[in-house]
Amino acid sequence: MNHRPDDRRDNAQKLQSMVQNTLENIDKAEESMAYTDSEEQLESIRQKNERRKDSIESFRQEIKDESQS
Question: Where does this protein reside within or beyond the cell (predicted)?
Answer without folding.
Answer: Spore core
